[in-house]
Amino acid sequence: MFFATGFFTGKSPFAPGTFGTLAAVPFALVFLIISPSFYGFYIVSVILGAIYVADQAEKILGKKDPGCIVIDEIAGYVVTLSMVPSHISVSTLAAGFFIFRFFDIVKFGPVKYFENNFSGGAGVVLDDIMAGVFSAIVLRILYLSGIF
Fold this sequence. Notes:
- This protein is mainly α and 148 residues long.
- It has one domain (9-144).
- Helix 3 runs parallel beside helix 6 (120-144) and helix 5 (109-117) runs antiparallel to helix 6.
- The chain has helices spanning 16-34, 39-61, 71-80, 90-106, 109-117, 120-144.
- It comes from Desulfobacula phenolica.
- This is Phosphatidylglycerophosphatase A.
């Protein structure tokens, strides 16, 4: 449950998804800095691990996508940073955080589809991956526009 709850950030009584996303920031940043060429491998590993961990946590808790499971937010934020350079700024990290939280909360179109049409760990994680994909695209556009 330690990993499923994002190092217990998901146990927060207020906005557990937001705190779970905050837990992802240092890990994504460190991996971007240390090994940007392996970031794609890191993303795939985090997604597959998150699906497995979320699936096990759902079984342990006996609930579908309980709020305390935030490993999906961690995976989604990791995807959010996938299209920015390794010399990332604090403002880019913050923008990625807020853009990801927006798409994760609003859950429009494909994000909602993945939430509603998959079960188990995949159902918990894949909507956040889609939110991360949309966030990555927006963040990349902002970066290319010279905003970050």
